[in-house]
Amino acid sequence: MKVELWCLGKNTIKYLDKGIEDYTKRIKHYVPFEMQVFHIPSARKNEAPENIKQIEAEIVLKKLSSTDTLILLDEGGTHYSSKKMALEIQKYFNHTQGKLIFHIGGAFGFHETVYQRAKAQISFSKMTFNHLLFRLIFLEQFYRSMTILKGEPYHH
Q1: What is the C-alpha to C-alpha distance for residues 135 and 11, in angstroms, rounded to an integer?
Q2: Domains in the chain with CATH codes
């Protein structure tokens, strides 16, 4: 099974690139992994938030296969400890036929059609993180989940 992290907009915080590359490489030791970055046409960036969410939804939903499992990384999602998160990921590994896709939304969150298509929502904190910084946070926690599942000492 392939795992993907979907993001909207290119990374403009360049010092994050090294960490993203490092954790992506680590994750690939455990599962086929790829990060997909979808770009919003710059002419559309000044539209109303609901229109931007609609544009983002159209881009994302067009890329999904009917067998893909979509997990939204959303402030309104379920909170897990690192160990519980690893167990949840294992459940998805066991029951996903297509790709397992984790999706970080844009600045305004997700459109209702994306919520409807998603299998679950996960929140990493009650705090709000910059969506560019959160890419690195997610990758570290996903890597941690892989090491927990393999019984490796990264997580103490």
Answers
A1: 9
A2: 3-149 (3.40.1280.10)
